[in-house]
Amino acid sequence: MHYEKELVPAILLKRYKRFLADVRFNHGEEITVHCANTGAMTGCAIPGSNIWLSKSDNIKRKYPYSWELVELEGGKGFICVNTARANKVIHAGLLAGKFTQFSQYKNIRPEVKYGDASRVDFLLSETGLVDVYLEVKSVTLHIDGELGAFPDAVTLRGQKHLLELLEMKRAGHRAVLAFCVLHSAIKKVTVADNIDRRYGELLREVINQGVEVYCYSVDMSVDGLYLSHQIPLEL
User: Fold this and answer.
1) Domains in the chain, ordered, with CATH?
2) Phi, psi of 47 (to 5 degrees)
3) pTM for the whole thing?
4) Residues 139-187 pLDDT 10s
5) Which of 146, 150, 157, 182 has minimal CB crowding within 10 Å?
6) Cα(140)–Cα(144) distance, rounded to whole angstroms?
7) CA atoms of 34 and 19, how far apart (whole Å)
8) What is the biggest distance separating any 2 CA atoms in the chain, rounded to whole angstroms?
9) How far is it, in rounded angstroms, from Cα 40 to Cα 224?
10) Hey, is 62 helix, strand or coil?
11) Rounded CA gap, 108 and 213, in Å?
């Protein structure tokens, strides 16, 4: 996934009200930008961090700039805080054949209704094969060393998605959860039981009943985000 326009550098002043952040451009101007992330963003919103913004041409937007990336200390990589990018990265990876598990599937439909008034992120179908219901979650919570975790806050929506995936599995389909790792330091993923114990219980339960879970790292730069390779899930 290539960024449509060149990203703009800035310094983070503070994040607040979940969807807003105050930033300072290199020339000194301070503005408020949109933050497309509903999570706690633990470790991702440290004042003084070097960040990168995208700008929309939509004149109706109150905040034309959106917060995209945080540069890790020492220039050792990035964190993508725009959770909407995870689906685009996974979609591009599916189209490029990065998921060998689904290489036979040519029909990829995003945002298909299923479950209890939900929309699955992707429905994969192919003549002669069972359908694949694929949910995507972004991982940015860095625990220690190379370990990251999901979720970074209690997620009732995430719990609901696990149960809906299990329903699809029981109905005879393939049900898949893909963790899209949007933090350069994370090389393996676990579940944050200390943050959302119920999510951890459900994740282990649905895995035991056949729901497939894959974790993928992402190569990140100010030019774009590209699905890289599968990394371990440790429970």
Assistant:
1) 8-80 (2.40.50.580), 84-231 (3.40.1350.60)
2) -55, 140
3) 0.94
4) 999 999 999 999 999 999 999 999 999 999 999 999 999 999 999 999 9
5) 157
6) 12
7) 6
8) 60
9) 24
10) coil
11) 18
